[in-house]
UniProtKB/TrEMBL annotation:
Residues 7-85 form the ABC-2 type transporter transmembrane domain. InterPro entries: ABC2_TM. Keywords: Membrane, Transmembrane, Transmembrane helix. This is Stage II sporulation protein M. The chain crosses the membrane at residues 6-25, 63-85, 97-115.
């Protein structure tokens, strides 16, 4: 059940982040040169790089929204599941400790991963609290 909640939260966060791409794509469609003016990049270099990037990803605003949303959702879900899997496998094989630590540090750059792991850890603590309360016969732990 917690995995479903994590996936739904990651989906919501991915859609929110992807929604900001709509403004960027609309700015490109309106031929705004504001970014070029304030960036200090040579005009020919800016336009070549921008054109190539936009033709690959952002030809249609809704496509940009979908691509960014799906990409962030996929990356957040996969990275969260990888670390959760490594955490469980690490209990059986001590050689996976280094991989777990490295992945945990490297993946922290992504907000989707951080949200997924935070929800996973909060649910784990809540389950431990519930089991402790049950074990103590309904008494509060605090």
């Amino acid at each position: 059940m917690i995995a479903f909640r994590i996936v739904l939260l990651l989906l919501a966060l991915s859609v929110i982040v992807a929604s900001f791409s709509m403004v960027l794509v609309e700015e490109r469609i309106s031929y705004s040169k504001h970014l070029q003016t304030i960036s200090g990049v040579k005009p020919w270099l800016y336009w070549i790089v921008n054109f190539v990037h936009d033709m690959i990803f952002f030809t249609i605003p809704s496509l940009a929204f979908i691509m960014i949303g799906i990409g962030l959702f996929f990356v957040g879900t996969v990275f969260t599941m990888v670390v959760m899997l490594l955490e469980n496998l690490m209990q059986q094989d001590d050689t996976l400790v280094t991989a777990y630590v490295v992945c945990g540090i490297v993946f922290m750059i992504l907000p989707q991963y951080n949200l997924g792991m935070a929800m996973y850890r909060m649910n784990f603590v809540y389950m431990l609290y519930g089991q402790g309360t049950t074990y103590l016969g309904g008494q509060t732990l605090l």
